[in-house]
Design brief:
Layout: H1 2-23, H2 27-46
């Protein structure tokens, strides 16, 4: 369950970062959004977060 809670937390952080970029499409916000996306992808690849099956594309 901890992994799903971590997944949920990371999705919320990623969503907030993207919202900030959409509200202020500056280079700084873009870089922050890309960094957060990479962090999320790295955690998913490493198995640090458990992504619920309904969110996985087959």
């Amino acid at each position: 369950m901890t992994n799903r809670l971590e997944w949920s937390r990371q999705v919320a952080v990623l969503n907030e970062t993207v919202k900030k970029f959409l509200a202020d499409p500056s280079a700084q916000q873009f870089d922050a959004a890309i960094l957060e996306m990479r962090s999320y992808a790295d955690a998913a690849k490493a198995g640090a977060v458990e992504i619920p099956p309904r969110f996985v594309v087959n």
